[in-house]
Amino acid sequence: METAESTEVYIARASTVDAFDLACLRAASLVEMGVMVPAERDAFLPRAHREFVQLLREERFAAWLLVSGGRPAGCAGVLLWRRIPYPTTSLHAEIAGVYVDPGLRNRGYAREMVREAISWAHAAEVRRVVLHVNPAARSLYERLGFVDGSEMRLV
Hints:
By secondary structure, the chain is of the alpha+beta class. It has one domain (9-143): Gcn5-related N-acetyltransferase (GNAT) (Aminopeptidase), CATH 3.40.630. It has four helices and five strands; from the N terminus they run βααβββαβα. It has helices at residues 19-33, 41-57, 109-123, 138-143, and strands at 9-13, 61-68, 71-82, 91-100, 128-131. The chain has a five-stranded mixed sheet with strand order 1-2-3-4-5, with helices on both faces.
């Protein structure tokens, strides 16, 4: 029998092969946030899978998987997009889809995955890295250097 201490846990860069795992983790996150009900999961997964494959193939999205005991248990991603021209670059990045299985939280895994995403975005020479914060994760992002900005949204 495998114990928690003997279970291998690691973080790996995701590829198109991992798109369905990313879709499943996204569904778990959306259900937990109350954005989606569990009954919608089966209809959501095929579309989410296709969209993750497309984003990964187009290199507009990069993601990292937290793997525990051989199973996906968390993820974090970074989505690239272009805005209107700026003097240096119009490329921007959004940290998105950060999720860790409840049983593995508060162990630094989200921080490490987000650091990987930020490093990847910086290597892509983006102008700005942003995110939409879940109030429960605010302190994590503040420790990583994120600050409140002036963004407004239409409701």
